[in-house]
Write a structure and sequence with these properties.
174 residues; mainly alpha; three-stranded antiparallel beta sheet; 60% helix; 7% strand
Length: 174
């Protein structure tokens, strides 16, 4: 079976209609949204030594102390291996402490250190700036609809998450 481009005369290929199909495609819009997020994150967190992944791990550990790496990964929606590597790097920087569980020596428990708590406090203020960078140009009702739609999308699409991300198979934040 020939594809559509082989059947159409060359003079009808391309143009605004074809381009809109690409530019309005959900995959493209999600990719562009991620680019916008990264740019805004870098601006909001300027001067703070945090990546998006290290921030969510610090925030999760700060708000849910003494959880295992697996549980932090689940709550943060990060694969366990990345969570473990990032937690180890944060420990080396003095921002997290990692200790073995008293009940299961294979399990590593994460806690925030005083230096991590200080960084969390600075970063939390910047996260509010990040929210403004991402949403301020949008009408408040459209913001609400956008955030609701994004939450619905993330919840409905979690089955499409890589199996290495524990929350993909679990209910959201029990």
């Amino acid at each position: 079976m020939k594809d559509d481009t082989e059947r159409r005369p060359p003079e009808t290929l391309g143009g605004d209609a074809d381009f809109r199909v690409i530019m309005d495609h959900p995959a493209h819009l999600i990719r562009r949204s991620y680019q916008i997020f990264l740019c805004a994150f870098d601006e909001a967190m300027a001067g703070l030594p945090l990546s998006p992944v290290s921030w969510i791990i610090i925030a999760t550990v700060r708000n849910f102390p003494s959880l295992s790496v697996t549980e932090v990964a689940r709550r943060a929606a990060i694969d366990k291996a990345s969570c473990g590597r990032t937690a180890s790097a944060l420990e080396k920087r003095g921002l997290l402490s990692i200790k073995k569980s008293d009940t299961d020596g294979r399990e590593k428990l994460l806690d925030i250190t005083p230096a991590g708590e200080e960084l969390y406090g600075k970063a939390f203020i910047q996260v509010m700036k990040l929210k403004s960078l991402l949403l301020d140009g949008i009408d408040p009702e459209v913001q609400r609809q956008f955030l609701t739609s994004m939450a619905v999308f993330v919840h409905a699409s979690r089955k499409n998450t890589r199996p290495s991300i524990p929350t993909a198979r679990d209910a959201d934040m029990d």
